[in-house]
Design goal:
By secondary structure, the protein is mostly helical. Helices cover 74% and strands 0% of the residues.
Length: 195
């Protein structure tokens, strides 16, 4: 297997959508009173945030407004950031209305803060969303499961390497994505009393 092919497998297999769903599933099943509630929270957030953004992004790719779902030029990200923010805030209102578990709310707030931060940075620099999402996953798993989750930290440099090999980002962009995301997760989870 070539280095480029391996980098593609890592980047595509651990894309932000997949990892976002993994984060949501772990948080929901840790926070909810039982499996049925966890599944309900997972489906609600998936239906209100992930699915609409994915469908709109697919439409943008199909109509030529974006190059691809997860590997596109910096200026093509602006609309997706705004759309993602809209659906995340809408979902936040619904979660508050339904008295969702604090861990799920904190996770969504983390996503909102990350989207706003990355959208601002994206105006002048293409920070790595892939590396950011892997970093968020690793930190959240550490918060939820403690030392058992330490092996997940290896995913961060793996993703950074893949994004550099694929010429999607520089070393600075992947490091910044990982660090900014980790700081946001820690700050928001601390603010909500999850840590």
């Amino acid at each position: 297997m070539t280095k480029l092919k391996l980098a593609n497998y890592i980047s595509d297999g651990l894309n932000p959508l997949v990892l976002g769903l993994v984060i949501l599933a772990n948080v929901a099943f840790t926070a909810a009173a039982d499996a049925a509630q966890a599944f309900g929270w997972f489906l609600l957030v998936t239906g209100l945030v992930f699915l609409p953004v994915l469908l709109i992004a697919m439409f943008f790719v199909r109509t030529g407004r974006m190059d691809a779902l997860f590997s596109n030029r910096r200026h093509q990200r602006h609309r997706i950031y705004v759309i993602g923010l809209f659906f995340a805030v809408l979902t936040m209102l619904v979660l508050n209305w339904l008295n969702a578990p604090v861990e799920i709310v904190a996770t969504l707030v983390t996503g909102i803060v990350t989207v706003v931060t990355f959208a601002a940075v994206n105006l002048w620099w293409k920070i790595s969303v892939h590396t950011s999402t892997v970093s968020a996953l690793a930190v959240i798993l550490l918060v939820l499961y403690g030392w058992w989750a330490v092996p997940s930290l290896v995913l961060v440099p793996m993703m950074g390497w893949s994004r550099i090999v694929l010429a999607q980002h520089t070393l600075g962009q992947v490091v910044a994505g990982a660090l900014v995301s980790a700081i946001i997760v820690i700050a928001v989870f601390f603010q909500y009393g999850v840590i």
